Amino acid sequence: MEMLERLGLPAPAWAGGAAVALGVVLAAMVGQAIGGIVVLRILPEATLAGTVVRRAQAPIKLALPLVALQLVWALSPDSLSGIAGVRQLNSVALVAALTWLAANSVGGAADALVRLHPYQLADNLHARRIVTQARVLSRTLVFLIVLVGLSLALMTFPEVRQIGTSLLASAGLAGLAVGLAAKSVLGNLLAGVQLALTQPLRIDDVLIVQGEWGRVEEITATYVVLNIWDQRRLVIPLQWFIENPFQNWTRTTSELIGSVFLWLDFRTPVEPLRTELRRLCEQAPEWDRRVCVLQVTDTSEKSMQVRALVSAADSGRSWDLRCKVREGLIGYVQREHPDCFPEVRGQLRDSIKTALTAQAGGS
After folding, report:
1. Which residues lie below 8 Å from residue 315, measured CB to CB, with a gap of 6+?
2. Count of beta carbons in the 10 Å neighbourhood of residue 151
């Protein structure tokens, strides 16, 4: 009672309410503790529900007492001094707790899906699809949950209720101003939802973006992080992928066909070179035994172009295999046919030939 008097609240009027409030808070805490123990024993941590429940434990410990207190204050008489401020304070805290609970639940579900679908495997197309959707959609949902929670918290204050309504419904001049100011953010947010649903790219996909080769390392609610082969990181807004073309080497499968080009003299025997390509592929562990072809694909006035096509299970193996084939074919030509590299030929005119012959005879 002394504490209530210090706060300016009449002790006799608040004594009963404070006692009831303390009782319901203790009851809520005990109920939450018992229920939490039972539920955690029933639901294994490895399951989706188990992960969500464990992530929700902390906000539930805060939300349940606040819900109980909200019922107490709602049933308290309006004539009670200071009850309006207490109700409003409890409402704001309850909205914050429920926002925290919803965000943690969404994050826990996403973490469980990622753990249940490991993508560090050879055949990981389905897993990468699930992981990408889980991460992008969960971050988008968390953003929306926080936005709605902030709006609801503002709507508890009569003075700023219009701001909360504008944020929630995007109506009026305030909502229009906020929408225009956050155009790029909202554009990336919508682009993230579109990417998650259509999935032109996924986690661990191999992309060629603006001439850079790399793997998708992270997809957030607003940008994509591309891990470049030399360990640089390329950060790209999500909306860029909606508006610009890019190469995805692992869209449906990670298998690739690589090419090796050599310019050789017309005297180069093609069939022995084809046999050497087959030998190089069979000795290379990177070759997946699908494609091993050598063809003359172009000619010029000086030489001919030879193209070797070889296949591999993924882009990394394809690169290594192409390098091995290129080095092996060059080494074979150097050993077996050193005169078959491109040469510059010329033809002397008859007058020059005669002059050179006469000069040689005179000497």
Report:
1. 206, 213, 249, 250, 254, 256
2. 18
Which helix (H) or strand (E) element contains residue 307?
strand 304-312
Please state which of the ranges 277-281, 284-288, 339-343 shows the lowest mean pLDDT: 339-343
Query: Does the pTM exceed 0.90?
Result: no
How buried is residue 120: exposed, middle or buried, by Cβ count under 10 Å (0-12/13-18/19+)? exposed
Q: Which helix (H) or strand (E) holds 295?
A: strand 287-299
Residue scoring higher pLDDT (245 or 166): 245
In this structure, what token pair is assigned to residue 317? Answer: 């193996």
Residue with tokens 């192409």: 322
Per residue in 7-18, is it b (16+ CB within 10 Å) or e — as a string? eebeeebbeebb
CATH number of 256-340: 3.40.50.20, 3.90.79.10, 3.30.70.100, 3.40.50.10610?
A: 3.30.70.100
**pLDDT, tens only, 42-93:** 777 667 777 777 888 888 888 887 877 777 767 677 666 767 777 778 888 8
User: In the chain, what are the domain boundaries?
Assistant: 2-116, 256-340
**C-alpha–C-alpha distance, residues 324 and 51, integer Å:** 47
In 3D space, the residue among 193, 185, 100 whose CA is nearest the CA of residue 138 turns out to be: 193
**Which residues touch 298 (CB under 8 Å, ≥6 apart)?**
304, 305
Edge-to-edge strand ranges of the sheet holding 304-312: 256-264, 304-312, 287-299
With beta carbons less than 8 A apart as the criterion, state whether 43 and 55 touch: no
Other residues' Cβ atoms within 10 Å of the Cβ of residue 68:
19
Alpha carbon distances (Å) from 1 to 8, 14, 70: 11, 8, 21
Q: What angle do CA 284, 288, 292 make, to 5 degrees?
A: 75
Query: What is the Cα–Cα distance from 294 to 260, expressed in whole angstroms?
Result: 9
Place of tokens 């060629």: 208
